[in-house]
Design a protein that fits this description.
By secondary structure, this protein is mainly alpha-helical. It has helices at 6-15, 28-47, 56-71, 77-88, 92-104, 113-132, 136-149, 154-166, 170-183, 188-203, 205-219, 223-236, 241-253, 257-270, 275-289.
Length: 290
Amino acid sequence: MARLHPIALLLALVLTAGIGYGQVRLPDTAAEALAAGERYMAEALATYPRQYPDRQLWQRAFAEGRRAQSLAPDALEPVRFLAEAYSRSNWYGPAWNAWLEYVRRGGRVRGDQEAQRLIAEVGHELGYGAYSRGDTELALEYYFTIADLVPHDINAHVWSGRILIETERPEAAIPYWQRVLELDPGDVRAAYFLELARDQATWGTAAVTAFREGVALYEDGRLSEAAERFARATTRNPEYPQAWAWLGRVAFERGQYADARRHYARAAELEPGNQTYAYFRDEAARRAAN
């Protein structure tokens, strides 16, 4: 699957680089600090009904993790501990940065289910926050990275595909919706958006938007408004056969056979193998002649 953002590409490269976890031996002093941090983290989780990073036990856990890091700056264990502690205390920004640092330095998260779970939780919090503020590019960075590090996370692919469609990048959205369907073949929503992304990538976002609005108006019985939308779609992309065919369909149903013949003729010209278009072109011509 293609990736659009350099951060996601960097993470993918690191994940396949084969750098092992814990290659640097942890000194005893650093190991003792980490053990103390683990105890404080466990005590915090057992003590507080809700977790916040400014609570005393969490502050002690962080301090021990940082002490271990200062004693063993090249070791990965302190980095992972801090990433986990920040995550469990709901300190999302530092948690995310710590996980990225862990991966950048060669820490493996594939196969580490707890790391993947925490990365996904933190990333979704930050991604949705950025999306809610209207910062779609930052939101995409989070969701792309989750999709790379936690490839079975459906929501990361859903949000990536959704934002790419919303920001008029349908071709880039296609592989994300395909991945959602790989993970859940029965997801009707994903099938709809995959078809939408493919149509938009083929005919253009503006043309497809107008066309689909026209179909909705047609189904609601509002034929004049539907015809306007189909005409708009053909203006946005004159090579869009379905838009011409539906414009012909509305004209045919309204008894405007000369117009219907012209519109169906254009659709048949663009899609010569479509027998339905050819039939209604000829039938509209026959009725117009009579």
